[in-house]
């Protein structure tokens, strides 16, 4: 039987900030939830794929070379491949990331992603 997934329940199961929890796979895309706070990652680029951030709870910014985009609960943003960006999380935020399998690595997650 095909099972539903509740994003809030899954993200609330995470007991350590910055730990990615896979909640699904869509074609060759990973769906991961995570909690983050007081963290600004280094600027980075995904050369081969777009990336989507969906804000489940809280607020955070995505910084680009030409400014910030603020996301609140219920907002999402798609970052086109080749776009230099970095998440800026000042307070606790819970979000869903959707990206091509193999996109996440220790270098673009501040060393926190483990497969």
From TrEMBL:
<feature type="domain" description="Cupin type-2">
    <location>
        <begin position="40"/>
        <end position="96"/>
    </location>
</feature>
<dbReference type="InterPro" id="IPR011051">
    <property type="entry name" value="RmlC_Cupin_sf"/>
</dbReference>
<dbReference type="InterPro" id="IPR052044">
    <property type="entry name" value="PKS_Associated_Protein"/>
</dbReference>
<dbReference type="Pfam" id="PF07883">
    <property type="entry name" value="Cupin_2"/>
</dbReference>
<dbReference type="InterPro" id="IPR014710">
    <property type="entry name" value="RmlC-like_jellyroll"/>
</dbReference>
<protein>
    <submittedName>
        <fullName>Cupin domain-containing protein</fullName>
    </submittedName>
</protein>
<dbReference type="InterPro" id="IPR013096">
    <property type="entry name" value="Cupin_2"/>
</dbReference>
């Amino acid at each position: 039987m095909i099972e539903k997934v509740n994003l809030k329940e899954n993200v609330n199961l995470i007991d350590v900030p910055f730990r990615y929890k896979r909640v699904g796979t869509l074609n060759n895309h990973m769906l991961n939830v995570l909690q983050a706070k007081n963290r600004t990652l280094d600027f980075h680029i995904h050369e081969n794929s777009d990336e989507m951030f969906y804000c489940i709870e809280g607020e955070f910014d995505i910084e680009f070379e030409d400014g910030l985009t603020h996301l609140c609960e219920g907002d999402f943003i798609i970052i086109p491949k080749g776009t230099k960006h970095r998440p800026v999380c000042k307070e606790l935020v819970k979000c869903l990331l959707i990206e091509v399998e193999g996109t996440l690595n220790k270098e673009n997650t501040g060393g926190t992603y483990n497969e």
